Amino acid sequence: MNDFYLGIEHITDFAGYDHMLFLLALVAWASLKDAWRVIVLATAFTVGHSITLLLAGMGWVHADGGWIEFLIPVSIAFTAAWNLRRGAGKREAWGRGLTYFVTVCFGLIHGLGFSSFFRMMREDGASIVMPLLRFNLGVEVGQLLILMVCLGVASLLRAVGVTQREQQIFLCAVTGTLAVGMALERLPF
Q: What is the pLDDT of residues 146-188, one digit of tens each?
């Protein structure tokens, strides 16, 4: 299977729902009018996980899978809490910059989770750079598809009277609660 389509399939597969939860928590406040900012956030995440995918794929970084599987839902819960604490209209410039930085950092963690999957798909001795690039482009396209559907639904909900803050509270509560449950199930100690 082509690495590009493998990336799309990997991100849109409901078995990887933790990634979808992260995306929902990340954009809990957004609708279609925020599409450009959401695209930049998704790309920041992709940059982070691309870095660790490359480093782990080259064998330069090794992480304990138990800790990574624990830290992924922790990153989702943190993202939900971070977005929940922000009321509508409280998007200070420093907060936006910190959000992008944290999103890249969480991408690093999630990339380590992807790395074992990606390594299993590669043959020993095979070049990793171009397949990894194609895989990451597929992941990015898959993320953007998921996000545009979510933003479309959010815009429809806004049209029928759901406020930005109500959407934000609901999505952060759901994603945060599910993430805390996942983290407790995956305690590495």
A: 999 999 999 999 999 999 999 999 999 999 999 999 999 999 9
For residues 72 and 183, give the distance between their C-alpha atoms in angstroms, rounded to a whole number. Answer: 8
Amino acid at 93: A
pLDDT digits (tens, 9 = 90+) for 84-131: 876 544 556 666 778 889 999 999 998 887 766 666 666 666 677 788
Domain spans in the chain, listed from the N-terminal domain onward: 3-8+32-185
Q: How many residues does the chain have?
A: 189
pTM score of the predicted model: 0.87
Contact between 118 and 59 under an 8 Å Cβ cutoff? The reply is no
Classify each residue of 10-49 as buried b or exposed e, where b means 16 or more C-beta atoms within 10 Å of its C-beta: bbbeeebebbbbbbbbbbbbbbeebbebbeebbbbbbbbb
